[in-house]
Amino acid sequence: MQAHIVLAHPEAGSYNAHLVQVARQSLEAQGWTVSLSDLYRMGFDPCERAAHYVPALDAARFDAQSEQRYACAAGTVPADVAAEIRRLEAADLLILQYPMWWHLPPAMLKGWLDRVFIYGDVYTSTQRFENGRFTGRRAMLSVTVGTSAETYAYNGRSGDIDLMLWPVNFSLAYVGYAVLEPFVAYGVEAGLRYSEAAVVEARLKRIEQDYGAALARLERRGTVPFNRMSEWGADGRIKPDAPAYSPYMRHRRDLPLE
After folding, report:
1. Pair (182, 249) in one structural domain
2. pLDDT digits (tens, 9 = 90+) for 152-169
3. Residues 175 and 158 occupy one common structural domain
């Protein structure tokens, strides 16, 4: 089995980078082969731009989707993007490792999604969800946050972590992945620390152990449910008899908050 990890953190000595090594060791101990895209160290350009597409379909006006589709058809996909797609194609499991910054992934990871999930080779109007390119493969988020699980609960001051992670999980499902429940490392205090050093170190050690154990039990890990294409109507809305798995896609416009 082949696993591919995408790391989005600018510091080579970060805890996120350390969790990549924890994942590598745990998976390799089970017989997996592990590859890595360390986006910052690679110098990956997260900004989609006209300069990536030569020759261009339209040199006068840059339209990302049109240029992506043209490059896929012409065999001129940017080399860095093509290399990432080959790594994804070879992997049975994809892990995205990143910190939550301002309630979102770092811009580097968002840009990786913008460029690598390319229109034409990775998705089209008919190649998505259960018909996506990466159907039959699994993906999982491994995310670090600075405060406790309680603050990221449904009623926590940091916001509901399941809702915050939904857009990235949805993007993975969109291109065909079966999305495993995310691994969230809570209380990863870095730089400015609010707890005693010994408390932080003990917490980080427990996280490492929990993460290694989670990867050793991948076959039993739950998945995040998403609707299938057949569950939307011709108007693009969820059918009345289809299940609703998230407040992001629901049957009622207004949800009770009390």
Report:
1. no
2. 999 999 999 999 999 999
3. yes
